[in-house]
Structure formats: C-alpha cells, structure tokens
Amino acid sequence: MDEGKANCCEGCDRPLPTTCSHIIPRSYDITLLADINNFRFHCDKCAQVVERGDYDLLLDGEIILEYIEVTRPEYAEIKKQSYLERHGKEIYFK
Ligand SMILES: [Zn+2]
C-alpha cells in the first residue's frame, strides 16, 4: 500500500512512520486481505499491539474491535479471551 499516506499513526497519533497493517491478519483469513476496512495506518509499536489484541491501548482500538466483532465474531472472541487471560479482566474502553 502507499506508505506515507497518513502522517500520524492512527493508534497513538504520533508523527511516526506508519505502514498499512491488517486488523485481522492474512494468516487468519486471506479473504479479508483486500477489505479496505481491514486496514489501519499504524507505527510498528501499534501494529504489535493490534497483533497482541490489547486494543484498549490504541486511540482507534474501539473502531478496530468493532470491525472484528462485525466481520469475524469468532476472531473477536479469541482476542477477547486472550486479553482476559493476560490481564485478568475484560477489555474495556473509556
Ligand atoms: Zn502508533
């Protein structure tokens, strides 16, 4: 994708180099590879946060989780369960 389109990372709003990253990885569902809503412009750090599933740390985390819940609810359950196991609480957005 065209790098440099966004000047600020959508996850942390810092002026960092961003790359177009997938919310739902291609390893999970290749059919979402070209879904425009499955893309975010994130810095490396935020891209890793998305991979982990700690969406509450991101400015666009709520958008991300909403997209997953609508698009692949079973993937959302996997990520929410993993969050619960790692943090001992359910994911929550302020
Ligand atoms: Zn970032």
| Number of beta strands | 2
**Termini distance?**
32 Å
Helices and strands, in N-to-C order? EEHHH
Helix content: 25-40%
Q: Strand order across the biggest sheet? A: 1-2
H/I helix tally: 3
Q: Characterize the main sheet.
A: 2 strands, antiparallel
Ions and ligands: zinc ion
Category by helix and strand content: mainly alpha
How many domain modules? 1
Sheet-strand content, in percent, reads 5-15%
Principal-axes geometry comes out as: globular
> What is the alpha-carbon Rg in Å?
13 Å
Low-pLDDT segments: none
Q: Whole-number average pLDDT?
A: 93
Structure write-up:
This protein is 37% helix and 9% strand. With 94 residues, it is mainly alpha-helical. It has one domain (3-87). Strands 1-2 form a two-stranded antiparallel ribbon. The protein starts with 18 loop residues before the first strand and ends in a 7-residue tail after the last helix. The model has no long low-confidence stretch (mean pLDDT 93). The structure holds zinc ion (ZN). Zinc ion binds next to helix 1.
Quick overview:
The chain is mainly α and 94 residues long. The protein has helices spanning 44-52, 61-71, 73-87; strands spanning 19-22, 39-42.
List its traits.
9% strand, 94 residues, mainly alpha
Set down the secondary structure blueprint.
Elements: E1 19-22, E2 39-42, H1 44-52, H2 61-71, H3 73-87
Antiparallel strand pairs: 1-2
The protein binds zinc ion.
